[in-house]
């Protein structure tokens, strides 16, 4: 009999952390290998079953990620950029499949993740849903088909607790639009507007960020010219799609060669 696939969750008391635990627990062939959160979190020492509203699992939340990585086949990380830097190093040491959903990474955080991918399988995406990964492809195709007479604006809305802006997904869509147009996003991005900013420069890719309530995740890419407007949109109904995507990525990564992979690879959408 194949032994169960042991999946651990760092940041397991968070919104995505709990959803990841719930998804692993409900998936045949997978077991919750453990969960961690930051020192001082009220969840430390609690049984993971209680955290997700099921019977006790006999596994408690730890603040020691070293131990956690040692007892897992895969680790799912939706935390903060600072925590992800540490976790990426531990994933490389332990050579576990490492799934990174954390957004807002600075270039130096990203470099640590890429370094880890030399030694182990890393799957990273700012958005683990099938719909957004398709939206990314469509955005690139439409941007390629239309010239700079079409102004590209990316609008996103998230719940009031989100800490990074624009969202990682909005930036991912911006990258896709820029790639379609054959330009570098950093050269054409306008990440916020305020005051007497003047007329919109031709070729700009603009971002607008809305925050409020409990919205899990909404993104639209707008292509606007004189006389018509094309809009591509995605709305997540719940966080479950991200957790299902993250676990799918972990399972896909089992037995692969070390490297940095994306959800497009997992979903078979890469070119
Ligand atoms: P959250 O604040 O609810 O959860 C983060 C958790 O990480 C908290 O429990 C926090 O205590 C914990 N944490 C912080 N430092 C830690 C450390 N050093 N060790 C262990 N745990 C630590 O946030 P969230 O809404 O769950 O989002 C988390 C991240 O996931 C954000 O960057 C968000 O943008 C991203 N996200 C990505 C996707 C995707 O599909 N890739 C989807 C949703 C959210």
Measured as a percent range, the helix fraction is: 25-40%
Biggest β-sheet: strands ordered side by side in the sheet = 3-2-1-4-5-6-12
Give the low-confidence spans. none
Oligomer: single chain
Describe this structure in words.
- The protein is an alpha/beta fold and 271 residues long.
- Helices cover 37% and strands 24% of the residues.
- The chain has a seven-stranded parallel β-sheet with strand order 3-2-1-4-5-6-12, sandwiched between helices. A five-stranded mixed β-sheet has the order 8-9-7-10-11.
- Helix 4 (81-94) runs parallel beside helix 5.
- The model has no long low-confidence stretch (mean pLDDT 97).
- The protein binds nicotinamide-adenine-dinucleotide (NAD).
- The site of nicotinamide-adenine-dinucleotide (NAD) has 25 residues, from helix 1.
- The site of nicotinamide-adenine-dinucleotide has 25 residues, from helix 1.
List keywords for this structure.
seven-stranded parallel beta sheet; alpha/beta; binds nicotinamide-adenine-dinucleotide; 24% strand; five-stranded mixed beta sheet
Concise structural overview:
The chain has 271 residues and is an alpha/beta fold. Helix content is 37%, strand content 24%.
Chart the SSEs and their pairings.
Layout: E1 5-10, H1 15-25, E2 30-36, H2 48-51, E3 61-62, H3 65-70, E4 74-77, H4 81-94, E5 97-100, H5 107-119, E6 121-124, H6 130-145, E7 151-158, H7 168-181, H8 185-188, E8 189-190, E9 205-211, E10 217-225, E11 228-236, H9 240-253, E12 259-261, H10 263-266
Helix pairs in contact: 1-9, 4-5, 6-7
The structure holds nicotinamide-adenine-dinucleotide (NAD).
Residues 10-11, 13-17, 36-38, 41, 78-80, 83, 101-104, 125-128, 168, 242 line the site of nicotinamide-adenine-dinucleotide.
């Amino acid at each position: 009999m194949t032994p169960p696939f042991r999946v651990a969750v760092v940041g397991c008391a968070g919104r995505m952390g709990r959803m990841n635990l719930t998804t692993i627990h409900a998936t045949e062939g997978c077991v919750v290998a453990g969960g961690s959160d930051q020192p001082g979190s009220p969840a430390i020492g609690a049984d993971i079953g209680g955290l997700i509203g099921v019977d006790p699992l006999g596994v408690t939340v730890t603040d020691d990620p070293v131990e956690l990585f040692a007892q897992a086949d895969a680790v799912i990380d939706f935390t903060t950029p600072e925590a992800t830097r540490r976790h990426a190093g531990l994933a490389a040491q332990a050579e576990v499949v490492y799934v990174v959903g954390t957004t807002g990474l600075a270039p130096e955080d990203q470099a640590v993740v890429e370094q880890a991918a030399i030694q182990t399988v890393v799957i990273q995406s700012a958005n683990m849903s099938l719909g957004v990964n398709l939206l990314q492809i469509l955005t690139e195709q439409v941007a390629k088909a239309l010239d700079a007479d079409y102004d590209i604006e990316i609008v996103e809305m998230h719940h009031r607790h989100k800490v990074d802006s624009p969202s990682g997904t909005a930036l991912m869509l911006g990258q896709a639009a820029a790639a379609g147009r054959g330009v570098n996003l950093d050269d054409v991005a306008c990440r916020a507007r305020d005051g007497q900013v003047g007329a919109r420069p031709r070729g700009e890719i603009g971002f607008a960020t809305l925050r409020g309530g409990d919205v899990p995740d909404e993104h639209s890419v707008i292509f606007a010219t004189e006389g018509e407007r094309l809009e591509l949109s995605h709305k997540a109904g719940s966080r479950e799609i991200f957790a299902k995507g993250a676990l799918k990525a972990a399972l896909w990564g089992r037995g692969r060669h070390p490297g940095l992979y994306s959800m497009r690879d997992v979903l078979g959408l890469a070119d």
